[in-house]
Structures are given as structure tokens and as C-alpha cells.
Design a protein that fits this description.
CATH architecture of one domain: 3-Layer(aba) Sandwich
Number of strands: 27
Strand order of the largest sheet: 6-5-18-17-16-7-8
Oligomer: single chain
CATH class of one domain: Alpha Beta
Bound molecules: ligand MGD, iron/sulfur cluster, molybdenum atom
Structural class: alpha/beta
Largest sheet: 7 strands, mixed
Helix content: 25-40%
CATH superfamily of one domain: Dimethylsulfoxide Reductase, domain 2
Number of helices: 28
Length: 756
């Protein structure tokens, strides 16, 4: 394979300043995580990225940055990054023109449609869609046009339980409240490690500094996690918990709140239904009943509840450790319930909804309008897994490809995802992908998944795309509006990513590439959005001489809470005004806004949805389980991003980070030696991985990072291959899910551990 390295492409971003030595500085936002950091990108005379530093004047991140953000230039200039469309024939890849690539896509997609119809096609959309306006808005256009009977996403390996609890409690799967940590005095963190992740479903840069500030103002921060994480090291207290048992602990806290008369709805008095059903449901979950199951003393549970209810401003937060587990929906639901019944909801320093400048599209569809979701409207063909919020577990994809019969998947579009690493039963998917007749991938790398594609279409590097966050502001601790120009032009003739998505969607309807006209679809989709935002498309369309994502962002900003409403509110925000503010526009801290957010048919917060209560018997029967044996949990590291930043040398070099963390006493019992390999086995598979003995683990629990395993043939990842690590999802059984949401339980997997 000839590796083709481009000269740096032309700079098209807006120059911010020129330094004395001629260095030109441009401002950008980092798209990698919810911290949404403002960056200063310095270019040398040859347009190479010389340095990336934090933008100290950024209204949101105020000079915060992490190691990943400093490497966007390395990523952009990575010779392994895919810059040209490629077609695979056997093991050989060929660089082709965009027209040839789309001609091939047409041939492959139409071939599948001719044999099996649209039932034989599907798509997977990965994590970057959450951070990319173009991917999310035009990914939706692709899905809408194609009308695939089922699709897959990283969502069911991530936050699906929270989506289920939110849709039932508040009437919208994406209305996810978060903790106002900048003004709280008592913060409980469960199953999240912002020290590594930057925070998730809780957007706030530099959360360690916030923890220090809470403590400095006399407040308390408690981390409940099987691992004493870098976050726990900053906290006032660390409480180890047995993985998968958080729901029981939270139900017991609720039990204490009711029994000790600590119950109050506070600001949401008169806005909540289901208190009595909840009171009834928690009666059997006393602290004494759950203590052994959770490995948390009953007195500690009582104290947690009392202190939380007594706090002037308290917030309880749960993240991926609570979602990616066996009782994910129960745990995710109870997080909100505890805030509500302890009087900590919808108030400053408590739990609140965010207020994005661009009114999120996903907030437009409330169940008050659409009706309550019917879970299980259809079932997956092979496993019979019920659809939940339109998706079945991501691990179903492998068997849907591999199992013959009507409806077998033959065509697959993989969008910004690496599911052969990120999804349970990874080996099954790796074995299935070569069976496809048509696989099209849109990605920046030829990685463990995209190597199986027949056509690989390059996505942009972070410096080649304009950037505007939408979804993340829905759970941010404040409001702000920031825009980033595209810094570098893409190689000549490149089809922008939004157009790639629209064009593939078009082909999936059976139409010809020759007849594709982007502006027609773009105008159509924009008109639909206009109607959702209460604008007449007839009068709105003529206002624009541009289309694509920017027009949509402008609409959402102008019709958002600070928007100019197309002139009705002349001092209001427009995208143009945001663009004119290089460091962003600060729109203030969180505000209570429950009245405008609730979208349930009853118009009230539903505290005790039937569907969720129906899972309590499953938890009850687990309480008496034999707690012997080891379980595996996942972790993240600040220098990684899921599966895909491992080709950046400065991020991966140094100490091996793909290690099995084991408590010293467990290591002694198992005969494991620090630095030597262990064999870890589960019902799904078996791997060998170096041991790192550490008292940061609780006994009985071992931890592996996710996102590794880069030693595969046929990838173009020369650095990642050197630091391959092992894929922890080889140990994750696909059927081990949170039953209410279908979300993967990649935490709490029973494993056997022995010296290799
Ligand atoms: N065991 C275990 N498994 C897990 C988790 C865990 O904690 N433990 N976490 C889960 C979670 S939370 C998530 S979100 C998933 C993530 O699962 P995935 O979304 O499958 O994984 P990523 O590594 O985020 O994949 C992103 C892909 O998009 C590409 N990419 C990056 N930017 C762009 C872009 O702008 N355009 C295009 N076209 N491509 C781009 C990258 O090269 C990469 O291939 O993993 C899940 N899997
Ligand atoms: N640097 C970096 N940042 C990232 C990512 C990344 O890969 N790298 N990924 C991004 C993505 S896609 C996401 S979704 C977010 C996730 O953000 P976080 O939720 O903060 O994810 P983690 O850092 O994996 O922290 C999860 C914690 O849950 C604990 N845990 C595991 N099982 C249980 C359990 O049963 N109960 C409790 N109480 N705790 C448990 C683990 O020990 C771990 O400390 O991070 C995002 N940010
Ligand atoms: S990856 Fe690092 S630099 Fe980028 S937004 Fe997150 S914390 Fe900021
Ligand atoms: Mo995620």
C-alpha cells in the first residue's frame, strides 16, 4: 500500500493575531470532550501546527486544556490519517476520486437493495456524532431518507439507561438534568471519573478545580466507585461499592429519606407525580438489607442520605459506571429520584436542566406530543431483543450479519465508529464484517473496523471542520455560545461530510448518484427544521444565501432562548453575532427551568414510572446472590479517547496504560505479580494483559481500560500498533445488558483471573 502524505492544506480560518516572530494564532474549540475547551492554534510560516495552547480568554474554558487538546495538530498531520476516498479489492486498497467512490457506493448499495431490500441494510453511528453538528444533523438526514428498519449506535454502550429514565420522567430522552457543581456544597459522584473523562452528561471544564473549590468553601465531595480514582483523590471521601449494585444503594437512601422524615420536594412541590408509589417501592430496600450486596455498611448509607438531605445545596450525579451495568436504568433513574425527594432539584447548587443557546433539535419531540414510548414495538431478528427507543443492543449487529435468512444484514454504513473494539462480543463482529456484500465507512482512519469496508470515505480532521456544539450544552453548568471556523481547507475536491451523509442516504432510497443534488435535500431538511422551530420555510429560506449545517445552526440559535427570532428581538443572538465573538459569548450560570422543560403527557415529573418499577423484582432477587468471585469494570485515561487517539505518539508513549488493576491482597491470593501478564477469562472470551497491582481498587474488582487492541492486520495505524494493548470487550458478553434499556453491562462482568 502506498502511503500518500499530503502537504498541509490551505489555511482558511480567521486569523486571530500575529506574534512578533511571525507566528500566526487561530482560535478553535476542541471537539473531543464535554469540556469544550477553547484553544489557540499557532501556525508556522509553512502552515504547520507549531503549538496548541489554551485560550485563556475563552468565556467557557478560561484557559483549561488537557493533553489531548494539545495534539490536534499531530492528529491533523498524522501521515496515517485517511485523506482520500479508498476502495478495497481483496486485501489491496486503491485511492480513488470522489466520483469513483460514490459510483462504487451506488453499485454496492443498489446490489443489496436489489437482493434484500432496505431490510438488508443498516448503519452504526459512533461517539463523535455527539460532538459534531454535521454528523448528528446530516446523520439524521441519512437515516431519515434510508428508513432502515433498525440502526445501531454507541448509545447502547453508553447512556441508553439515562435516555430511558429521562423519557419516562421528563418526557424527552435527551432532557437530562445535571448538577450545578459550581454552586453546590455537597456533591456525590457515582460511577464517573471526571479526572480522566473531563466529565460526561455534565459539561464543565476543570472539574477537579471545582471539587477543590467546593471543599475550600466548606462543602463536601463524595466519590462512590469501586476504584479510588483520580477524582476520588481530590474528594473529601471515597466509598467503594460493589459494581452493579448502585440502584440498591440509592433505593436504600430513598428508604432513609422517607423513614426519617427527610422527604421534601422543595422547588418542585406540586410538579411531581408518583411519590406514594415510590415510597411503597422502596420500603423493602432498607440499608441493612442492601449493605452486604453493595459492600457498603448500612450506617454509611444512612449517613449518605442524611447528609445529602441536610445539605443546603446538594447534587447527586451518576455516570457511565451507573449506565453500563446490569441495573443501569434503575440506577440512572434513582440518581434523579434522590435529588428530587431530597429537595435538591431545580434549584441553584442542586440538579437542573441546562439552557443551550441553540435550542437542541432533540428537545423538540416530547412525549406530550408523540405519546409515551412503547418499548418493544419490534424485536431483533436473531436474538429477539426488544427495541428500546428505536434501538436494540449494539452487540446484536454481529449476529444480524452472520445469521442467514430473510432480513439478514448484507449492507452496512459505519459512521464515525469503531464497533469491533467498542462493542461487547467484539470477536463476533470482527468475524461477521467480512461476510458483508457492502460496507461503507466514513472515518479518519483505516482502523480495526473500517479495514473491512469496501469503500472508505475520509472524515475531516478536527482542524478541517467548523465546530459548534449543540447537545452538550443541554447538561452544561452554564450557558455560552461558541463557534469555530474551519482552520484548514480540505484537499481539493473533497466532499464535505454533511454532503457524504446526504448522498449515501439518497443512494439508500434506490436513486442514482447522477441525480443527487445536495441543495434540494438540504433545503428540504432545513424546511422541516423550520417547521419544528415555528418558522415558515417559505419566508425563511429566502433569507439565506448559504445552506448546510451553518444555516441550521443559525435557525436554532435565532429561535433559541436568546435568539433574535428573525428580527422580533433585534438585540438577540444570531450565528453571525456568535462568530464575531472570538472567545465566545457567556450567557450566564444555570437557572431553574423545570416548568418549561417538562414534556410528559401529564405535564408533571413522573417519579415512579411503571416500566422502571417493573424491574425491581429482578434487583430484589439479585440481593441474595453469592458475592464471591471477581468482577471486571472499565476505566478511562486522560490521554485516550475511546478507541481512536492511540495513533498520536505523544499521547501513548511512556508507561503502559492498558493494564489490569488489581488490589494487592487479591494479587497475592491469585498469585499475580506486578508487571507480569494475567489471563482474564469470562464466558465471552479470554485475554492476556499485564497486571498493575494497586490499592486504588477495592477487593474483588479488577479494572481494564476500554478502547485498546490495535494489533490487527490490515489497519493503517502505525503508532497504535506499537502500543496495541488488548480489547477489554473481548470479555464482555453481548447478552449481558441492563434489561430495561438494552444497554451493555460492560461493568460488573464476572471473570476469572490467573497468572498467564
Ligand atoms: N468495555 C467498554 N466498552 C465501551 C465503553 C466502556 O466504558 N467500556 N464505553 C462506551 C462508550 S461510552 C462509547 S461512547 C463507545 C464509543 O464507541 P465508538 O463510537 O465506536 O468509538 P470511538 O473510538 O469513539 O470511535 C470514533 C471513530 O470515529 C472516527 N472519527 C473521529 N472524528 C470523526 C469525524 O469527525 N468524522 C468521522 N467520520 N469520523 C471521525 C475515529 O477515527 C474513530 O474511528 O464505546 C463504548 N464501549
Ligand atoms: N480522556 C477521555 N475522556 C473521555 C473519554 C475517553 O475515552 N477518554 N470518553 C468519553 C465518553 S464517550 C464518555 S461516555 C465519558 C464517560 O465519562 P465517565 O463516566 O467519567 O467515565 P470513566 O472515566 O470511565 O469513569 C467511570 C467510573 O465508573 C466506575 N465504575 C465502574 N462500574 C461501576 C459501578 O458499578 N458503580 C459505580 N459506582 N462505579 C462504577 C469506574 O471505576 C470508573 O471510575 O467520557 C468521555 N471522555
Ligand atoms: S479533550 Fe482535553 S482539551 Fe479537548 S475539550 Fe476535552 S479537556 Fe478540553
Ligand atoms: Mo460515551
Amino acid at each position: 500500500m502506498d502511503v500518500h502524505v499530503e502537504a498541509p492544506t490551505r489555511v482558511i480560518g480567521k486569523l486571530h493575531r500575529t506574534e512578533a516572530d511571525g507566528t500566526r494564532v487561530y482560535l478553535r474549540q476542541c471537539p473531543l470532550c464535554e469540556c469544550m475547551c477553547g484553544l489557540e492554534v499557532s501556525l508556522d510560516a509553512d502552515d504547520h501546527v507549531k503549538l496548541i495552547r489554551p485560550d485563556r480568554e475563552d468565556v467557557w474554558s478560561k484557559g483549561f486544556i488537557c493533553p489531548k487538546g494539545t495534539t490536534l495538530g499531530k492528529l491533523h498531520e498524522d501521515p496515517d490519517r485517511i485523506r482520500t476516498p479508498m476502495i478495497r479489492e481483496g486485501d489491496a486498497w486503491r485511492e480513488v476520486s470522489w466520483d469513483e467512490a460514490f459510483a462504487k457506493c451506488e453499485e454496492l448499495i443498489h446490489g443489496v437493495l436489489a437482493d434484500g431490500g432496505i431490510e438488508a441494510m443498516t448503519a452504526f453511528i459512533g461517539n463523535p456524532a455527539g460532538h459534531s453538528f454535521s454528523l448528528s444533523r446530516f446523520g439524521a438526514l441519512l437515516m431519515g431518507q434510508a428508513n432502515f428498519p433498525s440502526i445501531y449506535s454507541a448509545g447502547t454502550v453508553d447512556q441508553w439507561p439515562k435516555n430511558v429514565s429521562s423519557v419516562l420522567m421528563y418526557g424527552n430522552m435527551w432532557k437530562i438534568p445535571t448538577v450545578d457543581i459550581r454552586r453546590t456544597d455537597h456533591w456525590i459522584i457515582m460511577g464517573g471519573n471526571p479526572q480522566a473523562s473531563g466529565g460526561s452528561l455534565l459539561a464543565c471544564p476543570d472539574q477537579l478545580a471545582e471539587i477543590d473549590a467546593i471543599r475550600a468553601r466548606g462543602g463536601k465531595v463524595i466519590v462512590i466507585d469501586p476504584r479510588r480514582t483520580g477524582t476520588a483523590d481530590h474528594a473529601s471521601e471515597w466509598i467503594p461499592i460493589r459494581p452493579g449494585t448502585d440502584a440498591a444503594l440509592l433505593l436504600a437512601m430513598a428508604n432513609v429519606i422517607f423513614n426519617e422524615d427527610l422527604f421534601t420536594l422543595g422547588a418542585v412541590e406540586g410538579k411531581v407525580l408518583g411519590v406514594e408509589q415510590l415510597r411503597e417501592a422502596v420500603t423493602e430496600f432498607t440499608p441493612d438489607r442492601v449493605a452486604e450486596f453493595c459492600h457498603v455498611p448500612a450506617d454509611t448509607i444512612r449517613r449518605l442520605a442524611r447528609e445529602f438531605a441536610a445539605a443546603e445545596r446538594g447534587g447527586l450525579y451518576g455516570r457511565i459506571g451507573l449506565c453500563n451495568q446490569e441495573f443501569g436504568t434503575l440506577a440512572s433513574w434513582m440518581v434523579d429520584v434522590i435529588n428530587i425527594i431530597a429537595g435538591q432539584f431545580d434549584k441553584v447548587g442542586g440538579m437542573m436542566f441546562g439552557k443551550p443557546a441553540a435550542d437542541p433539535l432533540v428537545w423538540k419531540m416530547n412525549t406530550a406530543m408523540t405519546g409515551e414510548p412503547e418499548f418493544g414495538k419490534w424485536r431483533s431478528r436473531v436474538r429477539g431483543a426488544p427495541e428500546i427507543l428505536g434501538q436494540v443492543p449494539a452487540s446484536c449487529l454481529a449476529e444480524e450479519i452472520a445469521t442467514p435468512g430473510p432480513g439478514q444484514i448484507k449492507g452496512f454504513i459505519n459512521i464515525a465508529a469503531n464497533p469491533t473494539i467498542s462493542v461487547p462480543d467484539s470477536q463476533q463482529l470482527e468475524d461477521a464484517l467480512p461476510l458483508l456484500d457492502c460496507m461503507i465507512a466514513i472515518d479518519c482512519y483505516m482502523n480495526e473496523t473500517t479495514r473491512f469496508a469496501h469503500v472508505l470515505l475520509p472524515g475531516p480532521s478536527p482542524l478541517e471542520s467548523p465546530h459548534f456544539d449543540e447537545l452538550m450544552w443541554g447538561w452544561a453548568v452554564g450557558s455560552a455560545a461558541k463557534w469555530s471556523d474551519q482552520l484548514f481547507e480540505m484537499p481539493e475536491g473533497t466532499v464535505p461530510e454533511w454532503e457524504i451523509l446526504a448522498r449515501l442516504g439518497w443512494l439508500c432510497t434506490g436513486q442514482k448518484d447522477a441525480d443527487f443534488e445536495f441543495s434540494v435535500l438540504d433545503d428540504g431538511w432545513f424546511s422541516t427544521l423550520c417547521m419544528l422551530y415555528g418558522r415558515d420555510p417559505e419566508t425563511t429560506l429566502p433569507l439565506y444565501d448559504f445552506g448546510g449545517p451553518e444555516r441550521m445552526i443559525d435557525l436554532q440559535v435565532r429561535m433559541g432562548p436568546w435568539g433574535d427570532r428573525y428580527g422580533e428581538n433585534p438585540d438577540g443572538l444570531t450565528l453571525e453575532k456568535i462568530k464575531a465573538a472570538p472567545h465566545g459569548i457567556d450567557l450566564g450560570p444555570m437557572v431553574p427551568r423545570v416548568d418549561e422543560m417538562i414534556g410528559t403527557p401529564s405535564g408533571m415529573i413522573e417519579l415512579a414510572p411503571e416500566y422502571i418499577l417493573s424491574d425491581l423484582p429482578r434487583l430484589r432477587s439479585a440481593l441474595d446472590r453469592d458475592p464471591e468471585g471477581y468482577v471486571l469494570v472499565s476505566r478511562r485515561h486522560i490521554r485516550s479517547k475511546n478507541t481512536w487517539m492511540h495513533n498520536v505518539k505523544v499521547l501513548v508513549k511512556g508507561k503502559d496504560r492498558c493494564t489490569l488493576l488489581v488490589h494487592p491482597d487479591d494479587a497475592a491470593e491469585l498469585g499475580l505479580i506486578d508487571g507480569a501478564d494475567a489471563r482474564v477469562s469470562s464466558e465471552a472470551g479470554s485475554i492476556e494483559v499485564p497486571v498493575e497491582v494497586s490499592d486504588e481498587m477495592m477487593r474483588g474488582v479488577v479494572s481494564l481500560p476500554h478502547g485498546w487492541g490495535h494489533n490487527k492486520p490490515g489497519t493503517r495505524l502505525s503508532v497504535a500498533r506499537e502500543y496495541a494493548g488488548v480489547n477489554s470487550n473481548l470479555l464482555a458478553p453481548g447478552h449481558f445488558v441492563d434489561e430495561l434499556s438494552g444497554n451493555a453491562a460492560v461493568n460488573g462482568i464476572p471473570v476469572e483471573v490467573a497468572p498467564a
